[in-house]
Amino acid sequence: CDLVFAPTPMMRDYLLEQGTDTKVQVLPTGLNRSYFDSDESISRGLRNQLGGKKRYVFCTIARLAKEKNLDFLIDTMYDLKARFGNQFRLLVMGDGPEREHLQNRIGELGLMDQVLLLGNIPNDQIKYYCKACDLFLFASKSETQGIVLLEAMAAQVPVIAVKASGVVDVVKNARNGYMVSENREEMADKICRALENPVLYDQLSRGAQETAWEYLNTNIARRAEAGYQDAIACNMRRGYRHAMAND
Description:
Elements: E1 4-6, H1 9-17, E2 24-26, H2 40-50, E3 56-61, H3 70-84, E4 88-93, H4 99-108, E5 115-119, H5 126-131, E6 135-138, H6 147-154, E7 159-162, E8 177-180, H7 184-196, H8 198-213, H9 217-246
Parallel strand pairs: 1-2, 3-4, 3-6, 4-5, 6-7, 7-8
């Protein structure tokens, strides 16, 4: 190949470590402009309907499978209950083979009023659910790209996420959210820090959307075009040098 596109810096570094000697350029998946368009009335309705008049509403998007690390997130909600009492709710969007196990875990911890499993939500509706929430929480350690994080950020929702591939390329501490180790106390601390300081929260919210704009698909397309043009130009220069050498 004349050029290889990798979706994240981490994947680029992995390819280079494996011995790839072709130029590797980072080209993430872009966000459609529609992710930034919101209807406040729809989001308010969802918050009233699903938030149960809680002071804080969180959400996450993940397939309900072991690798998405949702047990850790639910256990963190148990710890958070000691700080916030019943004044919060986590909305889990997605479905999968672990649904029954997770529902049982929620019951065992007495979190039936704090954690709701919503099942699959249509893609074109996700932005309204995110906008209805105060924070996007994420515990998966198996993402190549942080697409769902960017979808939340496009809705001006700060992200608190476990440090992992896909996350490290998107979440910037104190700018658009926080990355944490797989430590429940640390995650609960960052959730509290973001919510209990209004000035900080506004800063994180603005930073989240600014980050998402960087991934607008038209911006990504321009980067792709520039990469193709550069590869074509390099190939033509090689062909010219080869022809000159043969002469």
